[in-house]
Amino acid sequence: MATPLPAIPVESNQWDQALYAFLVEKGNRSGSKRTVESYSRMLWRFFEHTTPDRVTPAVVLSYAHGIGLSGKPPSPVTIGARIACLSSYFRFLIRMGLVQSNPCDLVERPNASPSPARGLSADEVKRLLEVVPDTIRGRRDRAILLVFILTGRRRCEVMGMTAGDIEIEDSTVFHRYRGKGNKRGRRELPRPAWEAIRRTLDDCGKELETMALEESLWQAGAPKGLSGSTFYARFRRYLAKAGLQPTGLHILRHSAAKLRRDAGESVETVSAFLDHSSLAVTTTYLRRLEGVEDHSWERVAEAIGV
Fold first, then answer.
1. To 10 degrees, what angle do helices 33-46 and 76-95 make?
2. Are residues 273 and 148 in the same domain?
3. Spatial separation of the C-alpha atoms in residues 73 and 77, rounded to whole Å
4. CA of 126: how far to CAs of 43, 233, 244, 270, in Å?
5. CA 270, CA 162: separation in Å to the nearest integer?
6. What is the pLDDT of residues 6-23, one digit of tens each?
């Protein structure tokens, strides 16, 4: 994948500098590399042959509904995403005093009904875990799956886990993470997930106590650590082998929420568990939850047979 933030030469014009600054700010605010990569691809492509001061509502409309690299007409969700990306950039330019208006304001956005979030049931999670082989790489993959399911963390947070993220206090293991919007958290790491991690560390001859803080936890079968894209490909194969529909890794986060709800947790507690801090009703609770022990994972672990 191309670097989302290419080096800006000294002689670059104000528009290239502004776009670079916008992407840096977007990355700092969202804390998501994937968000920056997505915005980068759309914006660099859009402004390849034009500049913000020449963009009209008609140009935005044409771009939003244009046929992309797939050769197919864009879906309402894609159209909305394109407009939202451009609109966010123009709001930044207005704030910087570089343009006076946002051409996206005059473009009607489609009524997109996103597909409902779907999570795997306890039985489906069991089927998924059962097809993971008892090999070095398989045990590593099982550990990753259990971390996803039992913590509900996002893809980058799980795949980027290092030795320095793990802390052990008495008999309780905690993990640190940096979530969306640069939100930093500290939560209990459920015992089945930790035990699976210890097994995969044993497979590669590692001990947490002697590992460098920046070392990946997922070195078994991948000495330099495992990339999200590589694990995603393996995950898709496991889904197929288990007779489950192909989908992305984010379904594991949905599954974590679903399993918590099925275990009797309230909607507010599940929202807090997922760090949905944009929900006003859970904001205060989220602050209290940071760093506390997790009293629900045992029921979830029991439901999926680990």
1. 90
2. yes
3. 12
4. 42, 19, 11, 21
5. 26
6. 555 555 689 999 999 999
